[in-house]
Amino acid sequence: MKVAFIGLGNMGGPMALNVGKAGHTLSVFDLSAEACRKYAAEGLSVADSAAAAVAGADAVVSMLPASRHVEALYLGEGGLMSQIAPGTLVIDSSTIAAATSRKLAEEGGKRGIAVIDAPVSGGTGGAVAGTLTFMVGGSEADLERARPLLEKMGANIFHAGGPGAGQTAKICNNMLLGVLMIGTSEAIALGVANGLDPKVLSEIMRRSSGGNWALEKYNPLPGVMETAPASKGYAGGFGTDLMLKDLGLAQENAAAVRAATPLGGLARNLYAAHSLAGHGGLDFSSVIKLVQPKSA
Length: 296
Known about the structure:
Blueprint: E1 2-6, H1 12-21, E2 25-29, H2 33-41, E3 45-46, H3 50-54, E4 59-62, H4 67-75, E5 89-92, H5 98-111, E6 114-117, E7 120-121, H6 123-129, E8 132-137, H7 140-153, E9 154-161, H8 165-193, H9 198-206, H10 213-217, H11 240-257, H12 262-279
Parallel strand pairs: 1-2, 1-4, 2-3, 4-5, 5-6, 8-9
Antiparallel strand pairs: 7-8
Helix pairs in contact: 1-6, 8-11, 8-12, 11-12
């Protein structure tokens, strides 16, 4: 299969590498010259533009930061929807508004282009290992066409429903993730303030009723978990501003369907404060800085 991959960030780059390792003919592109150089050095074929990357492609995979980027790429003036051949499969793995995914699928339908939304969970570690979870919105038939590619990038593939359903599932998941990271940070900070060893406390909670994904794989306190972004200066991983964006999507959706999400709203406000304090580029687990004593 000839595959075009657009977006080589912390998640997209490793995902593209896994597609290439699977033996597909791959053409990649990113607006960042640095990202293009990095993955060219990894052996990927870097195109001169997004349009050049999708020329003759059987499938196009995109992994971009926000709705506006996806709309500009596909639906803007000279966008890819006017460049992609009918019959091509588009897999958008960006986390964006469900309405944008539906708009993209509608436009694709008019042009004979199959479109699915397939946002992911699993972090950069999952992207590198090829163990991501895909939450797919679109037709069953289009998902089956995409499955051979998705299986090279992820270990779990769920069909959430029609166009946009994958995005809805993703914002529900990320709202919960934002809430539990704040709760985990508060609990660890409280224990440390009382003189507890954070590693011991984290293990106690991990094996008790407070156990969660953050304690298992993504401890927010530096030095507790060697592989977590917290122990690497909160570099890489999933940025605070990206979490803030996803929590904003969740609140917009909650308002639209009149759902009560008070903790989701509070989490958004706390991440907004954390970003305004200058931490927007740090991994979202750095939110523990909000609740640590200032001398910590």
